[in-house]
Amino acid sequence: MPQRADQRLALARIPPNERGRGAETRERLLDAAERVFAERGFEGASMRAVTQAAGASVSAANYHFGSKQALLRATLLRCVGPLNERRLARLDALEVAAGGRPLELETIVEAFLRPVVEAHASSADATARFRQVAARLYSDPPDVVAAMKRELFGPVAARFVTALCAALPEKTREQIELGFQFSVGVMVHVISGHLVTVADPEDEAREGWTSRLSDESVLQQIIAYVAAGLRAAAGPRGGAR
Amino acid sequence: MPQRADQRLALARIPPNERGRGAETRERLLDAAERVFAERGFEGASMRAVTQAAGASVSAANYHFGSKQALLRATLLRCVGPLNERRLARLDALEVAAGGRPLELETIVEAFLRPVVEAHASSADATARFRQVAARLYSDPPDVVAAMKRELFGPVAARFVTALCAALPEKTREQIELGFQFSVGVMVHVISGHLVTVADPEDEAREGWTSRLSDESVLQQIIAYVAAGLRAAAGPRGGAR
DNA sequence: GTATGTTTCGAACGATCGTTCGAATTTGAA
DNA sequence: TTCAAATTCGAACGATCGTTCGAAACATAC
After folding, report:
1. Which of A141, A154, A190 is closest, CB to CB, to B182?
2. Per residue in B212-224, pLDDT tens?
């Protein structure tokens, strides 16, 4: 990384004019950043690649965001914010619908997972790009994204862990937190498309099942897997054996 | 990436003298590469950082390995090879011990997971470093490591999927492959230390539970979680509901 | 000793990186 | 129109990147 960037987060110079021509290229930059960061990661993506994909100049990007890190931050915020709102809205709706305590485990898991596969507002293929961006959050250098992770996902994670605690009263909160981590791992691994490729003798040309994530059946399988795992993970002794 | 590197894998010029002073710095370079690649990722780690950590020169690294990609490849091979041998040895031992068919699911999962947490031959803290390197395999730019992934993990994955099929005869191989992907996701996420940090009001200063992975109890919880998930994932209708 | 081949290193090359700067261009109000 | 602010751009800066090259340092056999 050339030129110190002064360590602190560059304090994103926010241009005053919110709409107009400026805001338009601002969003074109965010779109391109979403795409390029997703494909090449933070270190792998260059400012020039992003701005070129956006049809803008490097200086324009730095004018709007202040630094590469701040651009990543803005990109993530725009992606993840609406997603988390959906998750919380779903969970809230579930809880009010069932005035009575017991909330079925699978429905909580679904509230957490389904918003990921659903297309979200901004654009049609935004989902596909978001998947990779979110996955990158868990694979880029810790010093870059550690704080962002806590900021973006901390509150919603706490909210869901609490809901899970209510649904699994026989487990400690610590156990559930651990199980929640496992579940996030499943989600991240699937949406990032990092499959293992089982290397079955014949059929080389699979590889293409990330597209199948949008399939309802795969979502159902993830929900079933995660819910069973949460129920089981070292409970008082074998939750669902 | 400056200077083309000629696209093909640089064909690692293997020095003829296998032992002697040469082989020693060769291994010091691999140790350092393990550490630095783990900490900063492939793109984030510089050749100079690696060689400096190894107390060698950049030219020495290129003399022994030929290119940065080839160095990563050699590093992964040295890490993952012994690990996979352990996994397969464990699975083999299990199968001969139980001449009768039914192999308990948990023991298969354990055969896959325990070698990761165990220290392996080369050095004491090699495990800690390996964890991150293996995790990087699932987080670095696809074009760099896609082939390596299949080469390194493909056969052992196929072997384990087959064993799982025998232990879960009521499921299709496709279902089990998917569940196996989920399980790899759990493992990768945990060993890479990308926790979500639940952001509970008080206690800011946790974060340090990656060290707890070596705890036997966490391993047990992962095994329980994964086994239950595999049993459940959209079976003939709810495996462990 | 010389001769041969292996190994290491410092220096340099060309390329690309993130960022900055000053001059254009555009926008919106006076 | 005129002026000031907002916005974009091209060019350049300094740093760092992966890689290459030629000369030293080292080992081993004659």
Report:
1. A190
2. 444 678 889 999 9
